[in-house]
Automatic annotation (TrEMBL):
Keywords: Cell membrane, Membrane, Transmembrane, Transmembrane helix
GO CC terms in record: plasma membrane
Main location: membrane
UniProt topology in membrane: Multi-pass membrane protein
Regions crossing the membrane: 22-40, 76-94, 100-118
Protein name per Swiss-Prot or TrEMBL: Small conductance mechanosensitive channel
Residue stretches making up the Mechanosensitive ion channel transmembrane helices 2/3 domain: 78-115
């Protein structure tokens, strides 16, 4: 402490005033941090409430698109509030006008360094503007398949079906495959033994499909028995297809497979499976 007072004395700085200014700036930083957190929380709550109301109004917007727009707006709002907070804190240490002058001199270097950041923002804006995908959609981006969990101006987050979260910079999104637009197709191939009557098996499957169409409201069209799809090594494979509501195709396929197995068991139609037959040769012992 004495060394600090000695150094401040050489610089003609009053130690009490110096410590007072430091305390004020630290207090300002704490207050700004608290206000920033409160502003972001209140702003996010307002944005969520606004878009929840929009999904139920007379002139409503699609729920997924509303969720996507609210996510992007919250991201932009957070950036703006953080920027204001940082400028406020920096302004307590240096003159903002001189800082802006220095920033003007170095803006060219910053522009080159922030080129990828600008590409992320521009690409993210056009992804949303073109409505290529929304939060909750099942998509393929680059080599990743999954559900879109979050969309921001810089990155897009998708979670695959193994639970892994992939964070992709928007500038790297070149090709988008959206699996969530329109009806989806459920496809099931079932094999019967070569010894079975194919026509009878098809008739049994057609009756089953009619029953499924009545019972399952997730099915939009079908199911239809297309016929023999393949002559396999040990089975005759018959294909069934159906049009389902979005993201319901896997559940319909699972139910179809279960119903087919139960129906074939009742009708005595064999579904072949690999078998191993062992022949044991009795060799007479050598009596010599």
């Amino acid at each position: 402490m004495e060394k600090l007072n000695r150094v401040l004395g050489r610089l003609n700085i009053d130690p009490s005033e110096f410590l007072g200014e430091i305390f004020q700036k630290i207090l300002l930083m704490i207050i700004v941090f608290i206000l920033v957190r409160i502003a972001i929380k209140l702003g996010n709550r307002f944005i969520n409430g606004f878009f929840q109301k929009k999904t139920t109004d007379k002139f409503s917007i699609e729920e997924r698109r509303a969720h996507t727009l609210s996510t992007i707006l919250k991201s932009v709002y957070s950036y703006v509030i953080y920027f204001i907070g940082i400028i406020t804190v920096i302004g307590s240490f240096v003159d903002i006008t001189s800082l802006l002058a220095v920033a003007g001199v170095g803006s060219l270097a910053v522009a080159f360094g922030a080129q990828s950041l600008v590409e992320d923002f521009v690409t993210g804006f056009f992804i949303f503007l073109d409505d290529q995908f929304s939060v909750g959609d099942y998509v393929t981006l680059k080599n990743f398949n999954g559900i879109v969990e979050n969309m921001g101006l810089r990155t897009t987050e998708i979670r695959d079906f193994s639970g892994d979260l992939h964070i992709i910079p928007n500038r790297e999104i070149i090709t988008v495959t959206n699996h969530s637009r329109g009806n989806m197709q459920a496809k099931v191939d079932v094999g019967i033994a070569y010894e079975e009557d194919i026509q009878r098996a098809i008739e049994v499957l057609e009756n089953l499909c009619k029953q499924m169409a009545k019972e399952n409201d997730k099915i939009v069209e079908g199911p239809y028995v297309l016929g023999v799809q393949e002559l396999g090594d040990s089975s005759v494979n018959i294909r069934i297809t159906a049009q389902t509501k979005n993201m319901e195709q896997w559940g319909v396929e699972r139910q179809l497979r279960q119903k087919i197995k139960e129906t074939f068991d009742q009708e005595g139609i064999e579904i072949p499976y690999p078998k191993r037959v062992v022949y044991q040769e009795n060799v007479e012992p050598d009596r010599r």
